[in-house]
């Protein structure tokens, strides 16, 4: 089961952590959000704050403005949970179904791929910064060289040679 293209877009950054929301995780695991939340509540000791957390009102309002959500009946009654990479694995463990195990592995791979892509981006950004610093003064240097060449070219006009030597 190749889920990587389905998981990556569902990973968001909240509280400076990459997380996946309970609704997205439940959909991937093939269970209802209610069942996922129920298992989290029953196993809270497996979900410390660095594994999973409930969004604040402000975070949820901000997130709703970024994503399409239901505006009619059946909306969210409780603030949603957000799961880090480790929390998503713990969710797969408490759900304990073959699909949850498969998807849990795919979720870890998606988080790892995002981490790798971010590292590559940071490295590329650093290279561009160093290159910009290196060539920063080149424009003025080249302008000075061009001006010197023009000055040399204008001082040696053909036909008006100075005599060299005595006399």
Q: How would you describe this structure to a colleague?
A:
This protein has seven helices and four strands. The longest helix has 38 residues. By secondary structure, the chain is of the alpha+beta class. It has a four-stranded antiparallel sheet. The termini are far apart. Helix 2 packs across helix 3 and helix 5 runs antiparallel to helix 6.
Short descriptors:
alpha+beta; rod-shaped; 167 residues
Per-chain topology:
Elements: H1 4-7, E1 11-14, E2 17-21, H2 22-29, H3 33-42, E3 52-54, H4 57-66, E4 81-83, H5 85-95, H6 98-135, H7 138-155
Antiparallel strand pairs: 1-2, 2-4, 3-4
Helix pairs in contact: 2-3, 5-6
Number of extended strands: 4
Number of helices: 7
Helical fraction equals 55-70%
Main β-sheet description: 4 strands, antiparallel
- What is the 3D form? rod-shaped
State the secondary-structure class. alpha+beta
- Poorly predicted ranges: none
Topology order in helix (H) and strand (E) letters: HEEHHEHEHHH
Strand order within the widest beta sheet: 1-2-4-3
Mean pLDDT: 80
Measured between the Cα atoms of the first and last residue, the distance is 95 Å
In percent terms, what proportion of residues is strand? Answer: 5-15%
Overall radius of gyration: 31 Å
């Amino acid at each position: 089961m190749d889920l990587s293209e389905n998981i990556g877009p569902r990973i968001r950054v909240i509280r400076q952590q990459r997380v996946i929301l309970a609704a997205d995780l439940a959909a991937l695991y093939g269970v209802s959000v209610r069942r996922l939340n129920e298992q989290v509540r029953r196993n809270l000791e497996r979900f410390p704050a660095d594994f999973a957390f409930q969004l604040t009102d402000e975070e949820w309002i901000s997130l709703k403005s970024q994503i399409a959500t239901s505006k009619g009946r059946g909306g969210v009654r409780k603030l949603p949970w957000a799961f880090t990479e480790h929390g998503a694995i713990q969710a797969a463990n408490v759900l304990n179904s073959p699909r949850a195990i498969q998807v849990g592995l795919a979720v870890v791979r998606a988080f790892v791929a995002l981490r790798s892509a971010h590292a590559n981006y940071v490295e590329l950004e650093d290279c561009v910064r160093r290159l910009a610093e290196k060539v920063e003064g080149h424009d003025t240097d080249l302008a000075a060289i061009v001006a010197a060449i023009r000055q040399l070219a204008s001082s040696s006009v053909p036909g008006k040679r100075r005599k060299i030597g005595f006399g």
